[in-house]
Specification:
Elements: E1 6-10, H1 14-25, E2 29-33, H2 37-56, H3 62-70, E3 72-75, H4 78-81, E4 87-90, H5 96-109, E5 115-118, H6 125-129, E6 138-143, E7 152-157, H7 163-175, E8 179-182, H8 192-209, H9 214-225, H10 231-238, H11 240-253, H12 262-269, H13 296-299, H14 305-320, H15 326-337, H16 343-350, H17 352-366, H18 374-378
Parallel strand pairs: 1-2, 1-4, 2-3, 4-5, 5-6, 7-8
Antiparallel strand pairs: 6-7
Helix pairs in contact: 1-2, 2-3, 8-11, 8-14, 11-12, 14-16, 14-17
Bound molecules: nicotinamide-adenine-dinucleotide.
Length: 381
């Protein structure tokens, strides 16, 4: 088994500083690397703020927090940052060309023993791995935002990743008190994004096709499907830039995964990025996190079977294509999206036969994208 003690996190942005913090909290020696000292200074300030908060909530003592903070060493020099590194976790921006450039540099200076893990949300692990000299020692490790709070980490082997590294990565994720979910194949969107991103588009299609309002759809999603908030609300919270980018990446890899609705691109082009820009699917008045008023009454005006069908069809695809299984998908959706009810249970409430009928009718009307997955067809009662 590979022995992980020293970790280097590349990129100190939203994800990188959080990954560095959770690793240091579990006793690892962490080097945090970014291209400019000012980015590292900001990142270390954020780590300090987060640790201070844990101290004020009495979850850590001050000496413990000081020790954790001291375990993270910020560095700009790449070769220096990678010295004696066992596991390198890369969290640089989600741009394929940039990632490849970064790996070319890293590959040259990293020790022979260093294994590479990318925190990419949507880019193909195998393609990035194959640009390095060590594709068998390259893996996807997908933390969720914010890493300090989110329990889920998807672990994604590329085509050549060694089984030993898969096990080491799962053990590492557990060692930082997170819950690993293995996505056995390097498929577009892995598990959570393969369900979440297409659902935003399907909900947008539902508005026109079912003449439903956003708050009716969102109320049904929240009160009948057990989501923590409506799907348009969740899209606004995530950011339309993130959703748009994920859509492009995922759709370019696999046409079966998403039926893109033009509204997402339109909002992105209008710079209506959601909560953070004051406007997205909904309008927001201030800086404070606002919730959209949804209700059980509004939920009665929209039958969400189309959305349940979309979720289950993508979940079934993951099982049929041996990327995951039902229990792992449920765990990923519960921890990654906060779902309060297992989606296959919701499917049973609506009736798998009804869902297959719904998908077949949609396929006739709107095309092959909606063809029911063979697993769903076989699950009819
Ligand atoms: N933000 C999210 O919600 C989220 C969630 C899960 C996964 N991810 C993934 O994590 C990765 C990072 O995303 P982010 O949101 O933290 O991005 P970010 O833009 O906040 O941070 C990226 C950081 O990388 C730095 N950087 C650029 N080139 C570098 C290099 N050569 N070496 C070291 N650092 C370099 C940048 O200066 C920046 O500080 C992406 O692949 C993204 O898809 C993001």
């Amino acid at each position: 088994m590979l022995d992980i003690k020293n970790i280097t996190v590349l990129g100190s942005g939203i994800m990188g500083h959080g990954i560095a913090q959770v690793s240091a909290m579990s006793g690892y020696n962490v080097t945090l690397r970014d291209v400019e000292q000012q980015f590292l200074d900001k990142a270390m300030e954020k780590v300090k703020w987060s640790l201070d908060k844990l101290v004020s909530k009495q979850k850590l003592s001050q000496p413990e927090a000081d020790k954790i903070f001291a375990r993270i060493t910020p560095k700009v020099d790449l070769a220096d940052a990678l010295k004696n590194c066992d596991l390198m976790i890369e969290a640089v921006p989600e741009i394929m060309e940039l990632k490849k450039k970064v790996y070319a540099e890293v590959d040259k200076v990293a020790d022979e023993k260093t294994v590479f893990a990318s925190n990419t949300s949507t880019l193909p692990i195998t393609e990035i791995a194959n640009t390095t000299s060590r594709p068998e020692r390259f893996i996807g490790i997908h933390f969720f935002n914010p890493p300090q709070l989110m329990k889920l980490v998807e672990v994604i082997p590329g085509q050549k990743t060694s089984p030993e590294l898969v096990q080491t990565t799962i053990d590492f994720v557990k060692s930082v008190s997170k819950e690993p979910v293995l996505c056995k194949k390097d498929v577009a969107g892995f598990i959570v994004n393969r369900i979440f991103i297409p659902l935003v588009h399907e909900a947008a299609w539902a508005m026109a096709r079912d003449a439903a309002s956003m708050t009716e759809i969102d109320s049904a999603v929240k009160f009948r499907l057990g989501f923590p908030m409506g799907i348009f609300e969740l899209a606004d919270f995530t950011g339309l830039d993130v959703i748009h980018k994920a859509t492009i990446e995922m759709h370019s890899r696999d046409k079966k995964v998403i039926n893109p609705h033009p509204k997402i691109e339109e909002l992105f082009n209008q710079k209506k990025l959601g909560q953070k820009s004051g406007s997205g699917f909904y309008e927001y008045s201030g800086d404070k996190y606002e919730r959209i008023p949804l209700s059980e009454d509004l939920a009665k005006n929209f039958n969400p079977i189309r959305l349940v069908a979309n979720i289950l069809n993508n979940a079934a695809w993951l099982v049929t294509n041996q990327a995951s299984d039902i229990n792992e998908i449920e765990k990923a959706l519960q921890l990654g999206m906060g779902l309060k009810k297992p989606v296959f249970e919701t499917g049973k409430e609506f009736g798998v036969t009804n869902i297959v009928k719904e998908l077949t009718a949609q396929a006739q009307k709107y095309g092959q994208f909606y063809e029911p997955d063979p697993l769903l067809v076989s699950m009819q009662n």
